Structure formats: C-alpha cells, structure tokens
Amino acid sequence: MSIWEYANPVKFMQTSGRLLPWVVGATVLTLVPGLVWGFFFTPVAAEFGATVKVIYVHVPAATFAINIWVMMLVASLIWLIRRHHVSALAARAAAPIGMVMTLIALVTGALWGQPMWGTWWEWDPRLTSFLILFLFYLGYMALWEAIDTPDTAADLTGVLCLVGSVFAVLSRYAAIFWNQGLHQGATLSLDKEEHIADVYWQPLVLSIVGFGFLFVTLLLLRTRTEIRARRIKALEQRERMA
Amino acid sequence: MRALLSRDLRLAIRAGGGFGLGLAFFLIVVTLVPFGVGPQGEVLARIASGILWLGALLACLLSLDRIFALDFEDGSLDLLATAPIPMEAVVTIKALAHWITTGLPLVLAAPLFAVLLHLPAPAYLWLEISLLLGTPALSVLGTFGAALTVGLKRGGLLLSLLVLPLYVPTLIFGAELVRRGAEGLATQVPLAMLAGITAATVALVPFASAAAIRVNLR
Fold first, then answer.
1. From the CA of B171, how many Å to the nearest CA of chain A?
2. Does A132 map to a domain?
3. What CA–CA distances, in Å, run from A128 to A110, A122, A174, A178, B107?
4. Rounded mean pLDDT of B167-171?
5. Cβ separation B168–A155 shorter than 8 A
6. Mean pLDDT for all residues in chain A
7. Which domain holds residue A131?
8. B216 at A interface, C-beta within 8 A
9. Domain-embedded: residue A166
10. Model ipTM?
C-alpha cells in the first residue's frame, strides 16, 4: 500500500468520492463557526473598530493564496518526475482557487487598508508581491487554456510553475528591498509568543482550518471534474477514430 | 554553434525590422512619455531611469515571439533538435542572438535617449552598467517564454503575460541601481543582486527553455 496508488485515476475517483462528503462536512463545521465567532462574538478593539473583523477572511485567504502555489509546485514536480496524470490535473484544478484566494486577500486588504492606513492601495512589499503572485496565477492558467494537447500543456505549465516559483520568491525579496512597507508583521507564528490576544486568535485559527477544508473540498471537486472532462475527451476521440 | 549564431544574426538583420524595430520602439516610448507626464525637466529627470528601463523591457518583449516561431514553422527547429549540439546550447545561442540584435543596441542607444529625458549626469554610468548587466537576463527569460509558447497560433499576448512577471526582479534592481547611482547612494547591493540574477538566469533558465522546446517538438 503506497500513496502512489492514488495516482491511478480510478482509485482516486473512488477514494475522493467517498472522502468528499466528509470534507464538505468538515468545511461547514469549521468555516461557519469560525467566521460567525469571529464576526459576531469577539470584542471590538477600541483602536481598530469593526473593520478588524475582516481579518477572519483576509488572513486565511492570504495564507492559502501562497500555500496553494506551493501545492501546485509539488504537484507539478510529481507530474514532471513520475508522470501521474492526477497530479497534473490537481495542479490545474488548484490554480483558479489560488487565484481567487489571492484576489480575496487583495480586495479585503484594500477594504481594511482604507480605514486603517487611509489608502486603498500602497506599494508595500507584501501587497506588491501578492499582486505579482496574482499575475503568476493568471499566466499559469492562461497557458493551460492556450494549449490543446493535454500532456504538452501539463509539461509546459509544470516547467512554468517551477521557474515561476523561483521568480515569485525573488520578486518578494526584491519588493522588500525596493520599498519599506506599512503592512504589519505576521499575526500568527509557531515559534514566537502570540502577537494577539486569545479571544482573537482562536476564531482566526478556526477560520484558517475552515479555509483549508474549503480548499480541499474545491480541489477534490475540481480535480474530479478535470478527470471526467479528460475521460469525455478520450471517449469522443475513440468514437471519431472508430 | 558559431554558425547558428551568425545565421540568426544574418536573418535578423536581413529580414528587416530585427535590428531597427526595437530601437525605434524604444525611441517612441521615450518620446511619448513627456506627452503623458508633461515636459517639466525635474519630473522627467526623476522618472527617467524607470522610463528607460521600462522602454528597454518593452522593446525586448516586442521581438521575442520571433525567436523560435519561424524556425518552428519551417522545420529548422527539428533539425536543430537532431543536431549534434544539445538543445540547451541552441537555446542559449538564440538568446545571445536576441540580445545582440535588441539588447545591445538598447544599451548603446540608452545614453542618447537619456538626454531627451534629462537624466542627471551621475546616473549615465549606472544606466549603462545596469542595462549591460540586466538585458542579458531579459533575453534569456524571454527565450524561455518564447519556448513555452512556440507551438501556439496566437502566442503573442500570452507571451507577455508569462514573461513580464518574470522580469520584475530584474526591473526592480536595475532601476534601483540607476536611482541610487543618480542620488549618490551606496550601489553595492542592487549591483550585486542584478549581476547575481543575470548570472543565475543565464546559467539555469536555458535548461527550462530547452525542456519546453523538447515538449513542443514532441
């Protein structure tokens, strides 16, 4: 029994089909309480006002905007090295989710920045690198759409993902060098003492977990759709050949 | 390899547009900017280095889709793939030819265009250094983008979307180097970073480009 068994599309469809209701349940059970708790049952900090509540969407979305790209990188590597189709399709399925997460982080950040910093947009390193990440997602998705042959598309987008990852990280540090920012430091970290009070970070962690399950749900759904679309294509082709 | 380089250079020069077009485009960008931001000398002087870098970047982008497209269409790319030199070398030579036909003229012409934009006197040296160091990275990264999109019918717009985000670090450090040089600040960090990015790009990205070409020829 090895993890590579799930690289078999049939096996993947079976397992993901059985897993999906549970993941959907977990999403509902974590995301809904997390957001409701955060939005309605946390005290309003005097110096921030009610706008601080956007943190329960902003931070999880930003977390996953980056981590989804990392997941795509891993999936692309698996595809390029071991040629498992499910992996390539999972990378393809993850890209639009990651793009939307980036967009959510940017938009909620703008909504938050307006009352806090007095500006919708600032060329701060974090904001800038998220904008660049957004462009990388757009380019990656556009390349998938543009190429007709599935394996060629998977190969080329995989290579693009590898090169893009290096340059995305490089852009991040270049942006830090280029302009000092307004954005505060990390809200949560594993190795430091907590920066914010318990009442705030507990619902926040719950929201992050909720966003994580939401991502897994969407990813499984989209990957299943991709696999089915691929099957339909193969069937159509066989019919035309016959 | 030398034969391939001279062939590419001759094609670029004789087919028309290769050499001059990028430069003309650069000149047009430089000419249009004052219409957009106004003719005041001090405004232009402040943004000159950024405009020159952006112009170089866009002019470089303009000729990218022709790096492989013609060779792909007439089949010479297949011949090159079966030639005794590795694909990585072919890709590097192509990037070098692209740099000689677009990057180098830009580097040489930049001081002339800088006059139009009232670039401060101490910045000229840094402008030259930064362009000389940075444009090879632009050509190599552009070759990667061209390699990804070579099989596509309408790859031009997609090519810009893929390549421009990759240009961000080079642009940041290049323009920052000129800005710091103009203001007399310490230039070691952007200089080292720009040189490092170019060196690493020239050394590593051809492998990715060659892989993309091989996939596209399959």
1. 9
2. yes
3. 12, 8, 10, 10, 28
4. 92
5. no
6. 85
7. 15-42+56-184+201-241
8. yes
9. yes
10. 0.87
Question: Is pLDDT of A92 > 90?
Answer: yes
Residue with tokens 């030639």, as numbered in its chain: B83
Q: Place A204 in a pLDDT band, splitting at 50, 70 and 90.
A: confident
Quote the CA–CA distance of A137 and A71 in Å, as a whole number.
Answer: 13
Position A140 in a domain: yes
Contact B189 A167 (CB under 8 A): no
Using N-to-C axis directions, what is the helix angle for A125-146 and A85-117, rounded to 10°? 150
A159/B212 touch (CB, cutoff 8 Å), yes or no:
yes
Structural contact between residues A163 and B166, judged by C-beta atoms closer than 8 angstroms: yes
pLDDT band at B18 (very low <50, low <70, confident <90, very high): low
Whether the model clears a pTM of 0.95, i.e. scores above it, the answer is no
Band the pLDDT of A53: cuts 50, 70, 90.
Answer: confident
Classify residue A48: in a domain, yes or no: no
Across the range B33-58, mean pLDDT stands at: 86
Instruction: Determine contact: B164 vs chain A, CB below 8 A.
Output: yes
Contact between residue B22 and residue B105 where contact means Cβ atoms under 8 Å apart: yes
- Do B53 and B174 meet the contact criterion of CB atoms below 8 Å apart? yes
A160-174 burial code (b ≥16 CB/10 A, e <16): bbebbbbbbebbbeb
Note whether B192 contacts A: Cβ–Cβ < 8 A.
no
Give chain A's domain count. 1
Judged by CB atoms closer than 8 Å, whether chains meet at A152 and B176 is answered as no
Say which of B152, B166, B218 has its CB closest to residue A147.
B152
Which of A137, A167, A169 to mutate to test binding with chain B, by most B CBs within 10 Å of its CB? A167
* Percent of residues, chain A, with pLDDT higher than 70: 89
B168 to chain A: closest CA residue: A171
- For the segment B197-216, the average pLDDT, to the nearest whole number, is 93
| H or E segment and range at residue B35 | helix B18-37
- B149 close contact with A: CB closer than 8 A: yes
Smallest Cβ distance to B216: which of A146, A152, A175?
A152
